[in-house]
Write a structure and sequence with these properties.
Blueprint (H helix, E strand, L loop, with lengths): L1 H4 L7 H4 L16 H9 L1 H4 L18 H6 L9 E5 L10 E2 L13 E5 L1 H4 L4 H11 L15 H4 L18 E3 L1 H8 L4 E5 L9 H17 L6 E5 L3 H13 L3 E6 L5 H9 L3 E5 L3 H14 L2 E3 L5 H7 L1 H9 L7 E5 L4 H15 L8 E7 L4 H7 L26 H9 L4 E5 L1 H13 L6 H15 L9 E5 L7 H8 L21 H12 L5 E5 L12 H10 L5 E4 L1 H14 L3 E8 L2 H12 L3 H5 L7 E7 L4
Parallel strand pairs: 5-13, 6-7, 6-9, 7-8, 10-11, 10-13, 11-12, 14-15
Antiparallel strand pairs: 1-2, 1-3, 4-5, 14-17, 16-17
Helix pairs in contact: 10-11, 10-14, 11-12, 14-16, 15-16, 16-18, 19-20
The protein binds pyridoxal-5'-phosphate (PLP).
């Protein structure tokens, strides 16, 4: 039976393969000849470079992109290791990335430290050219926005060990209308990191972590699985990357605190999902205890490997601006690893000569989970964890952020700011952004609220180039949008709600609704229904004029033949302020007629044109030149 075969591990491949051609190793990718061709085109920029992905040959027909990459292994002397985060200069404590270690000897955070002197053997232009040459290709593993910066991420991992979905390379969206309409801004950008494999920017870090775990397992290190506590997006990313590599994943989720879309992702990807009746902070505590006892690798952002991937979003922003540095970058913060990851990405570009400064960073928190905001407001004195209250920005509902020290470091060194957003503010900001064509998540609403506040106080200027980091896809958070637009959120005005209009399945009812909609701001509407009889109302031109003058309740003039001509001519003559423009006509004649009428001075001129078709005109106030 087809349905039961889906559940048997041995058989799913039969769904996709012709059973007559046994293929132990599917080579599906060889059917894309353009892959080799496009990677070839990058070789001029990279051939001379010792670290580059120079590809001098077309990929052979039997070869997949991993196999191709094996032929292009280059030796280099780049390296990275774990050191205690923000260690004093005389500290000698360090660990190989192949060790399983999450915290320093004193219990503090770790940081991945690159051999900057080795990287500095090449100048800024070299790195810019190298990174630019890899964008948008399918060369393994550089087609990924993360691994296109491999030398700066995990320089020593073999391409063969990398687990990637070619994440990153997300679009940087010019929020033209949102910026102009709501903020008076000219140069506002949204980095849509959530348009990604699992719908959040957590993919960027997870490809790095799971790749390193893959390497450890190949080195026969006893890692039986990878685990995380999550507010949703981390578990989705972890389970997808683990599934892709065939590594077991275990996720601890706070029951009823994440969206359905986020919950279903690890389930679908085959993770072992524990739904625990606590909040994120409770899950985090439990998994820390569990991973201390069992050979489960800890994938939380406490783990500094992930930040190496997350930081590439910052490098990508610079790259997308042709290595010009924006004035501001606003990031929503929960566990606070990411604000530091952005800092680190910018800082590396600065230190290695790709850019000459870094942007000012803003960390945006939900007021319901705002320990960093309170700390900042208190002049960075006496950090206190808080009990995080429920927030629509559920991925940042964290009261005791593990990376608080990293965040403080990033903000102090980037002349940064912390802002907060109430539930109403973040939901309104999200609705406003959506109304200009975006479809953002509530966390991005938090970041936009921070922008509103900093614009209103004049801290961010109208021409400042500003990037708002959008961290997850709006489709993961549809329930919050449904609640908002249904005005179903207690104590919230939902002032930008746009609920659907219930209407009977009846022509007249639908027309009434649509006329009410379409003629707000329009003064009149003329429709000729030639040969289909007259609308009695339209026969009285004076009455119509009055309606038009009032901008009134009646907007529609239905007529045909000469009566119609009289009506429009009189309207056109009486209301020079207004123009009558054809909206929809069935032949060119009528379109010409429509323009003609706008200039009409007398009836004869108008009626001279033939008029035997159906058409619709809109009477609209002339635009002043
Ligand atoms: C993880 C996450 C954040 C915050 O990142 P932190 O490093 O925890 O501060 C923001 N938005 C979304 C959607 C996330 O998944």
């Amino acid at each position: 039976m087809a349905s039961s075969s889906l559940l048997r591990p041995a058989s799913p491949s039969s769904l996709f393969q012709n059973p007559n051609t046994p293929k132990p190793k599917p080579k599906t990718l060889v059917s894309f000849p353009t892959i080799a061709a496009s990677s070839l085109s990058s070789s001029s920029a990279t051939n001379s470079a010792p670290a580059a992905a120079a590809t001098s040959n077309h990929r052979a027909a039997h070869e997949n992109i991993r196999e191709e990459a094996r032929r292009h292994v280059k030796s280099h002397n780049f390296s990275a290791k774990y050191v205690p985060f923000n260690a004093p200069p005389d500290s000698t404590e360090s660990y190989s990335l192949d060790e399983i270690v999450y915290r320093s000897r004193s219990g503090g955070l770790l940081d991945v430290q690159h051999d900057m002197d080795a990287l500095r053997q090449f100048d800024g232009n070299y790195w810019k050219t190298l990174f630019d040459s890899r964008v948008g290709k399918t060369t393994w593993p550089y087609g990924s926005g993360v691994w296109s910066k491999k030398e700066w991420v995990l320089p020593e991992i073999g391409s063969d060990d990398i687990v990637s979905a070619f994440e990153g390379n997300s679009n940087l969206f010019w929020a033209e209308r949102f910026g102009k309409q709501f903020l008076g801004m000219n140069d506002l950008w949204v980095k849509h990191c959530g348009i990604s494999h699992t719908g959040s920017f957590k993919d960027l870090g997870m490809t790095v972590l799971v790749s390193q775990v893959n390497r450890l397992r190949k080195m026969k290190r006893p890692v039986v699985g990878v685990g995380c506590a999550s507010t949703g997006d981390t578990s989705a990313a972890l389970s997808a990357y683990c599934a892709s590599a065939g590594i077991p994943s275990i996720v601890f989720l706070p029951a009823d605190k994440i969206s359905m879309a986020q919950l279903v992702q690890p389930i679908a990807n085959g993770a072992f999902v524990l739904s625990i009746d606590t909040d994120f902070d409770g899950c985090m505590q439990l998994i820390r205890e569990v991973t201390a006892e069992l050979p489960i690798y800890l994938a939380n952002s406490l783990n500094s490997l992930r930040l190496e991937g997350q930081k590439t979003a910052a490098i990508e922003i610079l790259q997308q601006f042709d290595w010009e540095v924006p004035d501001w970058v606003i990031v929503p913060g929960g566990n606070l690893g990411n604000i530091y990851a952005f800092y680190k990405g910018f800082k590396m570009c600065h230190e290695l000569g790709l850019v000459d400064k870094i942007p000012r960073l803003v960390c945006a928190q939900a007021a319901n989970a705002n320990p960093l905001y309170l700390y900042y407001k208190n002049g960075w004195k006496d950090f206190k964890a808080v009990k995080a209250n429920t927030t629509f920005a559920s991925a940042i509902q964290i009261g005791d952020p593990v990376s608080v020290d990293r965040a403080v470091f990033a903000l102090k060194n980037s002349n940064g700011i912390v802002e907060e957003a109430t539930e109403e503010e973040l939901m309104d900001a999200m609705a406003q952004a959506d109304s200009t064509g975006m479809f953002i998540c509530p966390h991005t609403g938090v970041a936009l609220t921070a922008l509103f506040k900093l614009r209103n106080s004049g801290v961010i200027g109208p021409n400042d180039r500003t990037v708002v980091v959008s961290t997850a896809h709006g489709l993961k958070f549809t329930q919050s949008k449904i609640d908002y637009h249904s005005k179903a959120i207690p104590d919230m005005a939902c002032k930008f709600a746009n609920p659907p209009v219930q209407v009977k399945a009846d022509f007249g009812a639908v027309m009434d609704v649509l006329k009410g909609l379409l003629f707000a701001g329009v003064w009149g509407f003329v429709r000729s229904l030639d040969g289909r009889g007259l609308d009695p109302e339209s026969l009285n031109v004076d009455q119509n004029q009055q309606c038009a003058m009032k901008g009134g309740e009646k907007h529609s003039y239905m007529s045909s033949g000469n009566t119609f001509h009289s009506a429009v001519a009189v309207i056109a003559r009486q209301f020079e302020e207004y123009e009558l423009i054809p909206f929809h006509c069935h032949n060119l004649n009528l379109i010409l007629l429509g323009h003609h009428i706008t200039k009409a001075r007398d009836e004869e001129e108008t009626t001279a044109n033939g008029m035997h078709e159906t058409g619709t005109w809109v009477l609209r106030r002339r635009e002043k030149n």
